[in-house]
Write a structure and sequence with these properties.
527 residues; mainly alpha; 22 helices; 2 strands; extended
Length: 527
C-alpha cells in the first residue's frame, strides 16, 4: 500500500502536457537505472536469437522483430522501478528485471497479442501491473482514466516513434559524415548485400534506438497515469489535510490574553480612532496639464491592448445573386425542368392551362417532397429504436436483459471485506479492540463488516475504485428505491463520517458515538 507522505513530486493538478514533461524529468533523473533495466534483458535475448538464426542460416532481421514485439516485457521493469522510486524506494537493476516478470502476469497474453499495438500502452499498462485488474474491471478502469488523457497518450507514442526513427537515421547519417570523401563507400550497396556483419549492425542500431527512447516513453505514460489518479482520488487534498493535522499537533498553545488586557488595548485603539483625521487628496486641475502631456498620455493609452483587440467571427449566410432580373427557368438545370413538366402533367387539374396552375404544381411538388421526407424520418426512427418499441408492445423476458452480475470485491480502501475474514460477533470484537486502545482497528472492523453485509446481504455492486462517499451515496439511493431502510441508511452515513474522521483526519471518535454504533449494529444487521 502506497504512502502518500513519501511521494517525491508535488502532487498537484497538472495539464496533460505538464504531466508528460514531468515524466521526461523523472526519466532524466533515473535514466541510468531505467536504461540498463531495459537494454540488458533485450540485448541478451537479441544476442541469443541472432546466434541461433546465424547457425541455422535463417534471416537475421527476425530476432529484431521478436525483441521489438516483446517491448511490453521490457517496459514493465521500467514501470516497476518508477512506481517504487516515486515513493522514495530505491531498487537495483537486478531487482527491477526480476520483478518485472510478475508485473504483467495477470494479463500477459493480452499485452503480447491484441494490446501490443495499443497507442496508449504506456498510459494504461500500470492498470494491469500496479492495480492488478483484468477483464471487465480493467475495461471500466481504463475507460475512466482515458476520458480526458487518451489523446495525450496517443501523441506520446507517435512522438517517441518518430524519435526512434530519427535516431536510427541519424546513426547512418553520422557514418556517412565521418567517412572521408576519398574512401569509396556506398551505404546502399552494403545495406542490400547479404553480409552477416551488416545485419548485426542493423540489429544493434535498432536495439539502441529503442533502448534510448524507452525511459522517456514509459515515464511519460506513467506520469500521465499518476496525474489522472491525483485528479480522480484527490491526493493533493489528502496530503494537505495530513500536513494540517501534523502542524496542529506540533503547534505550541499560545498564552491566553487576560480580559483586562483586551479591554485596555480596545480602549487605546478607540482613542486613536477618535483623534485620527482623514486626509483628502485632490486631483490636479485640468488646466495644469499641458497639451503635449495630454497628447502623450492619449497616445500611450491608445497603445494598450484594450485598443488592439481583434475578433474574428464565422457563420453561414445566404449567397447574394447579382442577376436578380434573370428568370427562374434560366437558373434551373434542364433535367430539373423536365421533371417539373412531367409532374405537371400528372398533377395539373383538368381543364386548367399551364400558366394558371404553375403555383399549384410547385406547391404539390414541394408537398410531395415533405411527405417523402416525413415518411423516411419515421421509418428511420422505427428502425433505430426497434428494440425499445418491441419491448413496449411485446412481452420481453426481463431476465435476458439484466446486467451481468459484477463480481463482489474482496478489498476496498485497503480493508478486507470478505465474510470469512470477519469474526462471528462484530460488536463484541470491536468493543474489545476499543478497550485495548486500538480505536482505528475497532472502527475499521465495524466499517469493513458493514461493507461486507451491504455487498453480500443487500447485493450492492460496489467497485474497488469507489470512495467512501460514493458507497454512502449508493446506499442512500437504495433507500429511495426501497432496497434498504432509513435506519440502515442513517447508520451507514454516521459510520462513514466517523471512519473518515479517524482514517484521514487522525482524530479519535467519541466513546459514546462508538458505543451507539455498536448498539445499532444488531438493529440494522439482525442475525
Amino acid at each position: 500500500m502506497m504512502d502518500l507522505g513519501k511521494i517525491r513530486i508535488n502532487p498537484r493538478l497538472r495539464t496533460h502536457w505538464e504531466a508528460v514533461d514531468l515524466g521526461f524529468t523523472l526519466a532524466r533523473s533515473w535514466y541510468k537505472t531505467l536504461f540498463l533495466s531495459w537494454v540488458l534483458p533485450a540485448a541478451t535475448l537479441l544476442a541469443i536469437l541472432t546466434l541461433i538464426f546465424h547457425v541455422f542460416e535463417w534471416p537475421l532481421w527476425i530476432p529484431t522483430v521478436i525483441v521489438w514485439w516483446l517491448k511490453p516485457l521490457w517496459d514493465s521493469s521500467l514501470l516497476l522501478y518508477g512506481s517504487r522510486a516515486l515513493f522514495g524506494e530505491t531498487l537495483s537493476v537486478d531487482y527491477s528485471m526480476k520483478g518485472s516478470l510478475g508485473f504483467l502476469k495477470p494479463d500477459w497474453f493480452a499485452w503480447l497479442t491484441w494490446r501490443r499495438l495499443s497507442p496508449a500502452r504506456s498510459f494504461v499498462m500500470p492498470v494491469t501491473g500496479l492495480e492488478g485488474l483484468k477483464g471487465e474491471p480493467r475495461s471500466r478502469r481504463v475507460g475512466l482514466l482515458t476520458q480526458r488523457s487518451g489523446s495525450s497518450s496517443f501523441w506520446i507514442t507517435i512522438v517517441c516513434l518518430v524519435m526512434e526513427v530519427s535516431l536510427t537515421a541519424g546513426f547512418y547519417a553520422l557514418i556517412l559524415i565521418l567517412i572521408p570523401e576519398t574512401v569509396d563507400f556506398n551505404l546502399q550497396t552494403i545495406a542490400e548485400s547479404e553480409s552477416v556483419f551488416a545485419d548485426m549492425i542493423d540489429n544493434f542500431v535498432a536495439l539502441m534506438a529503442s533502448a534510448l527512447i524507452a525511459p522517456f516513453y514509459t515515464m511519460a505514460g506513467f506520469a500521465l497515469y499518476i496525474n489522472r489518479r491525483i485528479e480522480l482520488e484527490a491526493w493533493d487534498i489528502e496530503i494537505h489535510f495530513r500536513d494540517m493535522v501534523s502542524r496542529q499537533k506540533s503547534r505550541k498553545p499560545r498564552a491566553s490574553v487576560s480580559k483586562a488586557a483586551q479591554l485596555f488595548l480596545g480602549g487605546i485603539l478607540s482613542s486613536l480612532l477618535l483623534f485620527a483625521t482623514p486626509q483628502t487628496t485632490e486631483a490636479a486641475p485640468l488646466s495644469q496639464l499641458s497639451r503635449e502631456s495630454a497628447k502623450e498620455q492619449i497616445t500611450e493609452a491608445l497603445r494598450g491592448e484594450d485598443f488592439h483587440v481583434m475578433e474574428t467571427k464565422t457563420g453561414w449566410r445566404l449567397k447574394e445573386n447579382p442577376e436578380e432580373d434573370s428568370s427562374l427557368s434560366e437558373k434551373l438545370p434542364e433535367w430539373f425542368i423536365d421533371v417539373i413538366d412531367w409532374l405537371a402533367g400528372l398533377l395539373r387539374p383538368a381543364g386548367s392551362n399551364g400558366n394558371s396552375s404553375s403555383v399549384f404544381i410547385i406547391a404539390s411538388f414541394l408537398e410531395l417532397l415533405v411527405w417523402a421526407a416525413a415518411i423516411g424520418a419515421v421509418a428511420w426512427l422505427i428502425y433505430h429504436y426497434r428494440q425499445g418499441i418491441r419491448a413496449l408492445f411485446t412481452s420481453v423476458d426481463l431476465a435476458r436483459h439484466k446486467k451481468p452480475k459484477v463480481a463482489a470485491p474482496e478489498v476496498m480502501f485497503g480493508l478486507d471485506v470478505r465474510q470469512e475474514s470477519l469474526p462471528d460477533d462484530i460488536p463484541a470484537e470491536a468493543s474489545a479492540l476499543w478497550s485495548k486502545g486500538e480505536f482505528r482497528a475497532a472502527l475499521g472492523l465495524l466499517y469493513r463488516a458493514t461493507l461486507s453485509e451491504l455487498i453480500h446481504r443487500y447485493e450492492f455492486e460496489f467497485h474497488p475504485g469507489h470512495t467512501e462517499r460514493e458507497c454512502a451515496d449508493l446506499v442512500h439511493k437504495g433507500q429511495n428505491e426501497e432496497q434498504v431502510s432509513e435506519c440502515l441508511n442513517n447508520f451507514v452515513l454516521n459510520l462513514t463520517e466517523q471512519w473518515q474522521w479517524t482514517a484521514y483526519g487522525h482524530r479519535q471518535p467519541d466513546t459514546k458515538a462508538f458505543e451507539h454504533l455498536c448498539e445499532n449494529w444488531q438493529e440494522v444487521f439482525p442475525a
